[in-house]
């Protein structure tokens, strides 16, 4: 839990939003509608954030109240067994999104399925994203939200169906090649290759075309029968904050295992053009890493830590003091970093990476974050 909290607290725009108190008006407006989390998650996150900012000693803070709040909303995190950090992150983001959602402005105009089907993909994507936001946008959706386009093309008649879903993180597989047989030395019948892979390979695997056939054949709406088809997944709206979950924990019917391969990922200049639709605009967003949640140990027990690019105590947002993260996002203004190389406020901490363990924080060589990386946090460069 601590590692995900540390990564979340390293998310500067989210922290600025809480620091400026804007969350209180959003939570109040939402309380009238009754959120699932009933404001508890935002309250608890704000309290934890305030405690972090106002502590006067160097001793560690206990996030007990925050933890108990999360457990009251998501009981699966109770107890002392190892919980999944990415699942924990999703619950925090879902809870904050529910609590901070602004009420829908007005009902979206609805269109018939046939009408939507006749639109271009670009128009469908815009329509889908508008509908998600009109159902209730939040700082969480605006910062972390992206849009995935899933298409299925019938091999027989070439009809292509499309669905659009928003995401707050991408769960990408770690591709395996050349499994070796090790029947005597391993509890597992097959051991996976330990060869390092690149993040780009993981993203390629995530969006690799999938052939639907046999028992998984596609029921084509035009052919009106099961047919062979190709399923394709692409990002059609890239988020401002891109969270990539490396699927290290693999399960089958009888057991599970941890995939230990080192994943080589860039600390800056991550481009995801290989998983994006080529016709979206801008075509090739660029991301820089700001936090990593890492795991050491096995499937059944281990330890999570965070590596964060620590910049400062929470500085003002770009532009005027009165501006807010929310309004910046709403107006699609650039999320430019408030820090520049010439900034007098924070020059020394500009590129400092820290290891955040349960009870201490220490400077670290960023290369240490590579081994065991489990969840990567990237910020889009503007
Ligand atoms: Zn068909």
Short description, anyone?
The chain has 382 residues and is α+β, with helices and mostly antiparallel strands. The protein contains eleven helices and 20 strands. The strands form six sheets. Strands 3, 11, 15, 16, 17, 18, 19 and 20 form an eight-stranded mixed β-sheet that branches. A four-stranded antiparallel β-sheet has the order 2-1-10-7, with helices on one face. Strands 4-5 form a two-stranded antiparallel sheet.
Describe the structure.
The protein is an alpha+beta fold and 382 residues long. The protein has a domain of 102 residues. The chain is 28% helix and 26% strand. The strands form six sheets. Strands 3, 11, 15, 16, 17, 18, 19 and 20 form an eight-stranded mixed beta sheet that branches. The chain has a four-stranded antiparallel beta sheet with strand order 2-1-10-7, covered by helices on one side. It has a two-stranded antiparallel sheet with strand order 4-5. Strand 16 and strand 17 form a beta hairpin. Helix 4 runs antiparallel to helix 5 and helix 4 packs across helix 6. The chain is globular and about 70 Å long. The two termini are 31 Å apart. About 13% of the residues have low confidence. The structure holds zinc ion.
